[in-house]
What does this fold into?
Amino acid sequence: MQQKREEEAKTNLIQAKDLLQKQRQPEKAKKITQLVDKMSAKSS
It folds into this structure.
């Protein structure tokens, strides 16, 4: 159950990052990328 939630959260973050990049907000997109990386590192 926990694994599925993490996957959904990661997907949502990636979608948010893509939106921010389209809106020309690279700083926020970079922060989201770092969050996703932390999540990936924690789960592996």
About this structure: The helical segments are 2-22, 26-43. The radius of gyration is 11 Å. The chain has a mean pLDDT of 90. The CA atoms of residues 2 and 8 lie 10 Å apart.
